[in-house]
Specification:
Blueprint: E1 8-14, E2 19-22, E3 28-41, E4 47-59, H1 60-69, E5 75-88, E6 94-108, E7 118-121
Parallel strand pairs: 4-6
Antiparallel strand pairs: 1-3, 1-5, 2-3, 3-4, 5-6, 6-7
Amino acid sequence: MTRGLNKVMIIGRLGREPEMRYTPNGRPVTAFSVAVNRSWTAGDGDKREETEWFNVVAWGNLAEICKQHLHKGQTVYVDGRLQTRGWEDQEGKKHYRTEIVANEMIMLGDRRGEAGDESLNESSAIEEDEFPF
């Protein structure tokens, strides 16, 4: 059997404030959107730009950190994997949503007036007492 790879890395700006909720067994999950801009020069010489939106979810300690420290408009690096989930609404209509399940998050640029980067991932977030926040 061949081994597969599912890895996504994006850098962009948060499109909305992170929203945190808890699963029925109490596990935290935080969702937010990230806008990634791309620009290029077309064959006719015109400069073009497009924005791609990504839905991101973080689980566990990383979810709590994202909710506490990320804010709309902030630049962020997210490393994770793509996942598509499906569900049926009350009328029986099927819906699908593809999202990035975050393994690591790095806050880039200004963070409420402070310059610097903070790198956090699910494994390092377990030892929260080590972080100054």
